[in-house]
Amino acid sequence: MLPYFPHGPLVSGSDRDQIIYQQGDGSDQLKGDTTGDVLNLKDISLYNVHFSIPELEFDNTLHISFKGQAGDHIAIENWNENQGFQVITDDGSVIDKQGIDQLIQSLASFDADAWASSPTPVDGQTKTAIASAWILATS
Q1: What superkingdom heads the lineage (predicted)?
Q2: Cβ atoms of 39 and 17 closer than 8 Å
Q3: Of the residues 51, 110, 137, 139, which has the maximum number of CB atoms within 10 A of its CB?
Q4: What phi and psi values does residue 122 have, to the nearest 5 degrees?
């Protein structure tokens, strides 16, 4: 089920935009030129982030959902036109477009809606796949 965006889309310009998203923000849609933009995830673990592009999406919209947060969702339109995009967590871990594309493949067996509605922590094998796509922050 695709989310409803009650506030309309956030429109990114040609500059490097910083988008801040935290648990409970609901559904957001990002349009425009997202090349160089950074999505800062507040209070969200990298192990709870799910990236997908549904097969029926003709515009290649990237969907980001969060484990155990069925009402939270981000959609980024025209993902394949994006030349550079990063997601950063509170602990400083970073994933770029290449890592996101890798995780889309790695997590393809997980349904995005099931992921978002399940509070069960990810297993060790899934954690390893997720960690391999991110540049983990060092303490």
Answers
A1: Bacteria
A2: no
A3: 51
A4: -70, 150
Cα–Cα dist 106/8, whole Å: 31
Encoded amino acid at 74, one letter = I
What is the mean pLDDT of each successive set of 10 residues along the chain, which is 139 residues long?
50 76 90 87 94 78 92 90 89 94 90 88 92 85
Token pair, residue 126, equals 């899934």
3-state secondary structure at position 19: strand
Single pTM value for the model: 0.87
Contacts (Cβ under 8 Å, ≥6 apart) of 58: none
**Amino acid identity at 113:** D
DSSP-derived 3-state class of residue 99: helix
Q: pLDDT tens for residues 39-56?
A: 999 999 999 999 999 876
**Which residue in this structure is represented by tokens 């290449």?**
98
Q: For residue 136, what are the CA distances in angstroms to 14, 116, 132? A: 28, 23, 9
Beta-carbon contacts of 108 under 8 Å, excluding residues fewer than 6 positions away, are 52
Cβ atoms < 10 Å from Cβ of 126: 15
